[in-house]
Amino acid sequence: MKAAVVVFPGSNCDRDLKIAFETAGFSVEMVWHKDTSLPSSVDIVGIPGGFSFGDYLRCGAIAAQSTICSSIRAYANQGGYIIGICNGFQLLTEAGLLPGVLLRNAELKYICKTVQLKVDTVNSIYTGGYSFTDIIDLPIAHHDGNYFADSQTISELRNEERIAFRYVENPNGSLENIAGILSPNRRILGMMPHPERALVDAHGGTDGAILFRSMSPSSMSI
Amino acid sequence: MKVRVHIMLKKDVLDPQGEAVRHALKNIGFDEVKRVRQGKVIDLEVDDGTEKNRIDQMCEDLLANTIIESYTIDME
């Protein structure tokens, strides 16, 4: 299986994400934001954390208009799998591939710590390796992770079981304690916590490895 | 030609930065301040004769996130 990891000026979790995919058995190609197409026959696109374009204007807003994003949109429209982590989640909302927006944290502080999350659905290739209502530990590191959407969007997310992860204790003011959401076809995941920073014991936890191991050829049917 | 775009959070979106500024003003004696909303101003220099709908499109496509922000445009 093949993954593409997109790199923007200011991305800083791109190589961690590459390693996470490789650990789960993917071959990985890095893609630069000025590239005009994704590698052929990729099974999944990873959009890493970091501070693309310095977080200027709004987090992810400028990256969402970059050249490679036209290809990412087309790939999404064909039913492609995409995981966006942290700044990658912000980008997916700015690109309109996931609903809502990530506002400044309610306490206005950058938060960098390990938090507990509840797995809110196991119906996706990303969460199929967990059990429903599992409590897992993953690090967060963000200034703008306060999930906001109108009430209709929130009830759609809830009713369609598209909330992938919720914070056990809300660190940033997110509505409904939302830490990660899925697209309507359940193939695009955006999440603020960093599973790629919880792969091996030396990271201080391994709960993130399960997410990457969940993606198997049998679960991914393009 | 100069164009100024004002971007503000919509009314129903919490503005914790504005609220922090209000607190700070109160702390230094400006008790009369009831509410602070913080926004952005973006100045553009564009070709003479640029139509307003082009500026609207810039706001919709990039400058504002209309899920949470509204914008107004001042053209010279």
Describe this structure in words.
The complex is a heterodimer of chains A (222) and B (76). Helix content of chain A is 21%, strand content 26%. Chain A has helices at residues 14-23, 67-77, 87-94, 151-159, 207-214, and strands at 2-7, 27-32, 44-47, 81-85, 101-103, 111-119, 135-142, 146-148, 163-167, 178-182, 188-191. With 222 residues, chain A is an alpha/beta fold. In chain A, β10 (178-182) and β11 form a beta hairpin. Chain A starts with a strand and ends in an 8-residue tail after the last helix. Chain B is of the alpha+beta class and 76 residues long. Chain B contains 2 helices and 3 strands, in the order βαβαβ. In chain B, strands 2-1-3 form a 3-stranded antiparallel β-sheet, with helices on one face. The longest helix of chain B is centred in the first third of the chain and has 12 residues, at 16-27. The N and C termini of chain B lie close together (7 Å). The chains are: A alpha/beta (222), B alpha+beta (76). Chain A binds chain B through residues 57-58, 61-62, 65, 94, 100-101, 103-108, 148-150, 173, and chain B through 13-14, 16-17, 20, 61-63, 65, 67-68.
Shape of chain B: elongated
Instruction: Write the element-wise H/E pattern of chain A from the N-terminal end onward.
Output: EHEEHEHEEEEHEEEH
| Radius of gyration computed on alpha carbons of chain B | 16 Å
Strand order of the largest sheet of chain B: 2-1-3
Helix content of chain B: 25-40%
Radius of gyration of chain A: 16 Å
Structural class of chain A: alpha/beta
**Sheet of most strands of chain A:** 9 strands, mixed
* Beta strand % of chain A: 25-35%
Tell me, rounded to a whole number, the average pLDDT of chain B: 95
One letter per element, helices H and strands E, the order of chain B comes to EHEHE
Most residues in contact: chain pair: A-B, 18 and 11 residues
Oligomeric form = heterodimer
Structural class of chain B: alpha+beta
Distance between the termini of chain A: 12 Å
Strand element count of chain A? 11
What helical percentage do the residues of chain A reach?
10-25%
